[in-house]
Design goal:
single chain; 674 residues; alpha/beta; five-stranded mixed β-sheet; three-stranded parallel β-sheet; 27 helices; 12 strands; globular
């Protein structure tokens, strides 16, 4: 790390730039709240006003510019308008376009002025023109501020990008920073930076080959860009601080079938390890032939406790996407949404988290309502299958007449929008919806316990249900039998692992052939997002010996507070299902104690474990290195742990900035260390 980066990092880490933030005046005239204007134009006018309100702010020795100074962004509708819209439509999350992967490479490579020249006079084109002009005007003010500060080098960069094509690595990075920054100011959130190494590698190679940059100076530019990603992350809306979607994808198959891991891929891993910040969050695409040294580079980050990289297996993801109807070229070019969902850059308006199937809740409900009438596990499974199909259809029925706020600026980054005059909020090449699946391991554990103890044991159904109703108080022996002596997913036991696979296949069967109102398909997944908190709150004690109040696992992971045989058994269990069928995404999540890395050979051993998961057909994997005692102390003395990073569900954040329910869940997960 250079002294310049160290100085920028200190200034930023101490949040000294927050002093430049201002609140919008209460009497600010919101001219875009004119009901006679179309929604698309209103969004563009709000972006124009938002960028006009920004004050150019430059760090000393600035390298990559642009810092938010106006935190709040008023909605384009007044309260009465929004109430009328929400009454007649389904609104996903905040109503904005989110969780997409824009095609930055195409826009960066020609510059915004070239896109502007293509615009006509239609509604969307007018809004795009207003948006482009607003971005370029703020960039010009930043260039003037750089000159006033005596930084001619930065000013010259800003004179060129993003208006024109970059000529250098620095210009390309600065262009991406500005383009991404403006998306947030339009109101679009959780839109990732996609295949960053593929977008930027041509500019890096050209600079190195021409001698314009040395490896040291180019690496400094990369670290400066990473720092810029962390400046405003507290302003980005999400469930929790850190849940901001600022992720990048490294490596992986290219559309032509070749491997994309390159020098910049390696540098991104190194830069993340040096800076130890939450952004950008890293996804690393791998396959059965990925060299062990790549896994070792990723494991270096795992050791630091950053909660990334998250691994994606091309051998499962690409054929899984192809089976869902994605063209081969697009499937090979997949990136990740804000957390883990597979998505196609520049060609998909997929809503990858439109709902969730509560596996554990469904099995629990079936058992409570029907166990006494069932005579075999097959009868229970038939009822569970029926309930899963019904829940999927109920969820989709509740999501009709979708309204998404237009995003004319973001539409510049998606194929066909400019040509068709159709805003990205109305759809794109792919318009699929994704459903998460929470609590699959506890659901399988419940079924396995009932099969062993009721159908092949001497526990009467009434006795089990009574113990569950009593939260196992006074039923200690039965609780211990269910919790510690029945099959558990994660211990390489086919009796329960087969049930995990059956549940996932049933989920895939339930969505097969269904379409949403936009003509897209429905994708089943193994992720949980925040639903693992919500669904657990609806559960009492369950048939696997879990007491009421014990959380569900996050994502695709074993039940909490069970006895695991070890990491290899865990990997084997969760790679048995055909995960190509549930390819909406959702990683196997494993917590490591930081003591695992106390020995020198630990990096290689953990890397080999990751490779085992990939070679056995696992789809996604995320590892979190934690110290339970440190987290408990951080709850008592947060001022001492401002830089403690943890993996929450599909993203990493600062532990002390999380709500206590999420802190407690991570501490609880730490009791299940491998």
């Amino acid at each position: 790390m250079t002294e310049r980066i160290r100085a920028l990092m200190h200034f930023q880490w101490e949040r000294l730039h927050h002093a430049a933030r201002i609140a919008l005046p209460e009497d600010l005239e919101l001219t875009y709240r004119d009901r006679s204007l179309p929604d698309t134009l209103r969004t563009a006018l709000r972006l124009k006003q938002a960028l006009e309100m920004e004050t150019p702010y430059l760090f000393d020795n600035e390298i990559i510019a642009f810092t938010r100074t106006v935190p709040n962004l008023p909605r384009i509708f007044d309260d009465a308008e929004w109430a009328a819209i929400t009454e007649g439509h389904f609104i996903h999350e905040l109503g904005n376009v989110s969780n997409l992967s824009p095609d930055y490479a195409s826009v960066i490579s020609v510059g915004l002025l070239a896109w502007r020249e293509k615009l006509g006079e239609g509604e969307l084109h007018r809004a795009m023109r207003i948006s482009i002009d607003a971005v370029l005007k703020l960039t010009a003010r930043y260039a003037a501020a750089a000159r006033a500060k005596g930084d001619e080098a930065l000013a010259e960069v800003l004179d060129r990008v993003p208006a024109l094509p970059p000529r250098t690595f620095r210009e390309a990075l600065q262009s991406l920073r500005i383009l991404h920054y403006a998306m947030w100011c339009e109101g679009d959130y959780h839109n990732t930076m996609g295949r960053f190494d593929q977008t930027m590698i041509p500019y890096l190679r050209a600079d190195l080959e021409a001698g314009r940059e040395t490896e040291e100076s180019a690496f400094e530019l990369l670290e400066a860009f990473f720092l810029a990603c962390n400046r405003d992350s507290d302003l980005y809306p999400g469930m929790q601080q850190g849940d901001n979607g600022q992720s990048i994808v490294l490596g992986g198959m290219l559309p032509d079938g070749t491997d994309g891991f390159n020098l910049l891929s390696k540098w991104c891993l190194k830069a993340s390890a040096e800076l130890r910040l939450i952004d950008p969050k890293i996804n690393l695409r791998v396959n059965k032939d990925t060299p062990l040294e790549v896994y070792e580079l990723g494991t270096q980050l795992t050791k630091l406790g950053l909660g990334f990289p998250q691994y994606e297996n091309d051998d499962v993801a690409i054929p899984g996407l192809e089976a869902l109807g994605y063209d081969t070229e697009d499937a090979r070019n997949y990136a990740m949404a804000a957390c883990w969902e597979f998505i196609i850059p520049g060609r998909a308006m997929d809503i990858v988290n439109i709902g969730a199937l509560p596996f554990a809740n469904i099995v629990d409900r079936v058992l409570r309502e029907h166990l006494t009438a069932c005579r075999s596990l097959e009868e229970v499974k038939a009822l569970v299958r029926e309930a899963i199909f019904a829940d999927v259809r109920k969820t989709l029925a509740e999501r009709r007449n979708l309204y998404v706020i237009p995003s004319p600026y973001l539409s510049l980054f998606f194929d066909g929008c400019l040509e068709s005059g159709r805003d990205i909020s109305l759809g794109c090449k792919y318009n699929n919806w994704g459903l998460h699946g929470t609590g699959v391991a506890p659901a399988a554990d419940m079924l396995a316990a009932v099969d062993q103890e009721v159908f092949h044991g001497d526990t009467a159904p009434e006795a089990l249900l009574r113990a569950m109703a009593d939260n196992f108080v006074g039923h200690d022996a039965l609780r211990d039998q269910l919790k510690y002596h029945c099959p558990k997913a994660g211990n390489d036991d086919d009796r329960v692992d087969g049930l995990v696979g059956w549940l996932l296949d049933t989920f895939a069967d339930a969505v097969e052939g269904l379409h949403n109102e936009r003509g897209g398909i429905i994708r089943a997944g193994t992720g949980s997002a925040m639903f693992y908190i919500f669904h657990a709150n609806e559960l009492g004690a369950t048939a696997d010996g879990r007491e009421a109040g014990v959380p569900l696992p996050a994502n695709y992971a074993p039940s909490l507070n069970i006895r695991l045989n070890g990491p290899v058994s865990l990997i084997k269990s969760f790679s048995k299902p055909d995960l190509r069928r549930t390819i909406n995404g959702g990683p196997l999540t494993i917590e490591f104690s930081d003591s695992v890395f106390s020995q020198e050979e630990s990096i290689t051993k953990v890397a080999q474990l990751v490779r085992l998961f990939v070679q056995r057909g696992g789809h996604q994997l995320q590892l979190n290195t934690v110290n339970r005692e440190r987290m408990l102390d951080a709850q008592k003395h947060p001022e001492n742990y401002r830089n403690l990073i943890v993996r929450v569900w599909g993203w990493s954040g600062y532990f002390v900035e999380l709500d206590k329910c999420y802190q407690d869940h991570i501490i609880r997960r730490a009791e299940l260390l491998v």
